[in-house]
Amino acid sequence: MSKRENAATLYIYVKDYVKNLLVAGKYPANSKLPTECELMQELNVGRATVREALAQLEEEGLIYKKQGVGTFVAPADKYAITTFSSFSFTAQSLGFIDNIKVVNEIVGKVDKKNIKYLNRWEEGTKIHGAERIRLISDSPIALDCIYFTEEAFKLAGNNFKFDESYNSKLNAAMSTEISHISTDTIKRKAVPAEADALNLNVGEDVVQISSWFYVDSISAEPVAHSTLLISSHLFKYASV
Description:
Elements (H helix, E strand, L loop, with lengths): L9 H14 L12 H8 L3 H13 L3 E4 L3 E4 L13 H7 L4 E12 L16 E11 L2 E11 H7 L9 H8 L6 E10 L2 H7 L6 E10 L9 E8 L9
Antiparallel strand pairs: 1-2, 3-4, 4-5, 5-8, 6-7, 7-8
């Protein structure tokens, strides 16, 4: 795994490294993680960087700390929901047909309105994207936004269509392999527009999964970003 060159976001590198250990099952639930010093030596970063990464992971509920003892892995269901980052695969494995409806295609830039959730790209970065609805048997199950940098979009050319599943298609479209996917998962309440689109009650629980896609041969920066919003009743499939 190569280190990000931008020191301002170096903690993201450490955070992603630890999260990958959890998702890969290298540290089971309630097991002790490497110490701050061990992570500093392994990743060649400073203590402040490690502490910031661990603080965010603790805030997200993926790890917990015991004063004077160490840092431990939270129960697996806290991060098992990240399997939904490949929504089409999950739907198919459950015997469902996943359809994608493109609501709006986007050509623009990262600006003050969207930089809050596109914060791994600099303001002014040119992007192409689409807002989509994922359906199973014609019923809306998830809202989905996908964005590409202009360079990645040009490489994808005519081989990529926004009504396709982006994970596997991104690999095929750019004739190269995604080297790293960084995913954050939170549980929150649906706002009125989201509830209306998903046929939910306002304030009902939803899961928001945000993923960043990296291709080392193209850039040290992410080449694509997606946000998937799923109704809470799908939680029970998280560990399938």
